[in-house]
Design a protein that fits this description.
By secondary structure, the protein is mainly α. About 80% of the residues lie in helices and about 0% in strands.
Amino acid sequence: MSLEIGHPIRHHLFRMRFTEMNEIYWFMILRSFALSLLTIFVPIYLYKANFGVSNIFLYYISLYFFEFLFEYVAARFLKLRGPKHSMILSLPFLIVHIWQLLTLSQFHWSPLALSITLSIALAFFWEGYHYDFSRSKHTAKTTREVGKIFIAMTLIGAAAPLIGGLIATYFGTRPLLVIVIVLLSFGSLILFKTKDRNFRKGKFDISKVSLANIDKHLVSYAGLGWETVSAGQIWPLFLFFIISSYSGIGLITSVTLLLSIIVTYWVSRRADNGKRADYLRGGSLLNGIVCFLQVFVETVTQAFAVNVGRSLAQSVFKPPFDSEYYLHADEESRSEYIYIMESAVDLSRLVFHVIMYVLSLSFSLHIVLIVGLIMGAFGSLLVSFMPAAKCEICGEIKNKEIKMSRRLNA
C-alpha cells in the first residue's frame, strides 16, 4: 500500500484532506455519538418494557444467529459494490430497528422481528467498516492510528451516555430513540455522497483463507465477543439494580470513558515499537480480573471503581488487538478473513446467550447476570491468544539483528 500524502486511501483521521474521506470520517463521528446515546440502555429498556428476561435473551440469540447468516450475504455484497456501499445499506435497517424499539409497547414486536433488522444492519456495517479501515491504515503506525480513532470517538461520545441518561430519565426513552433516528438519518445523507474509489470488484472465495492458519485468531476474537457482550449487555443490567436510574449509569459511563483517553493515548504511542503483544496480553489479563470483581459489586462507589478499572484495562488491550486484526487482514485475503472473523464472533455471542437463556429458565436474574459477568472475564483472558502479525515479527527480528550488529561493531 502506498503511504504517500497524495494517496486517496487513508485512515479516517487523515481523510479530512480529501472531500470523500471527510464525509466518511464525519459519518463515523455522528454514528458513534448517536448510538452512544442509546446502546447502553437497550437491555434496561427492554427489561422495563416488560419484555421478559427470557425474551431478552431470545432476542439476542436471534440477533446473533441471523447476523451470522447475513455475514455471508454482506461479504458477497462487499465484493461487488465496496465497503462504503455496505455501510450505507446498513443504515435503513438500523433506523427501522430503532423505530421498532420506539413502538415496542404499541406493536409488541417479537424477539425475532426485532433481531432480524438489527442483524442485517450489523453484518453489513461492520464488514464494510473493518474492510475500509484495514486497507486505509499505515502498517508502521497501526496502533497509533487505531488509538487516534479511539480517542476521537471517545471525545465525541463521552458525553453521550450522560446526555442519553438525562433525556431518558426526565423525558422517557421514546424522545431519546427519536433523536437517535434523526442523527442517523442525517449521517446517511453525508455518507450517500461518497463513492468506493480504488475498489476492484472480485469473486468471494472462502477457500482463500485456511482456518488452520488462523485458529488462534478465532479463539481470541470469540473471547472478545464474550467480553464485549458482558460489558455492553450484562453489566448495564446488573448495574441498573444497584443504581436504578438512567442518568446515574450514564454519568458513570461518561466519566470512565474520559479517563480511558489518557491510557489509550499512552498505549497507542508505545505499542507500535514491538510491544503490541505485551500490552494485549497484560491488558486482557487485567481486564479479566476486573471483570471477575464485578460480581462482588454492591454499592455505587464500588460500581464506579470497577467501571474505571475495566475502562482503563480495555484501553490497554483494545488498540493493540484491533491493530493485530487489521494487520492480519493484510496478510490474508482481506474480505474472506474479515467474513470468517466476524462469523466467529457472532457464533461466540450466540453461544453466550444460549447459556444465559437456559439459565434464566431455572435461576433468578441475579444469578444469571453473575454467570454472564464471569463468562465475560473468561472471554477477556482468551483475547490474549491473538498472535503477532508477520510484519511485526519480522520487524522484531530486524531490530534484534541491528542491535547485534552494533554490539559486534562496537
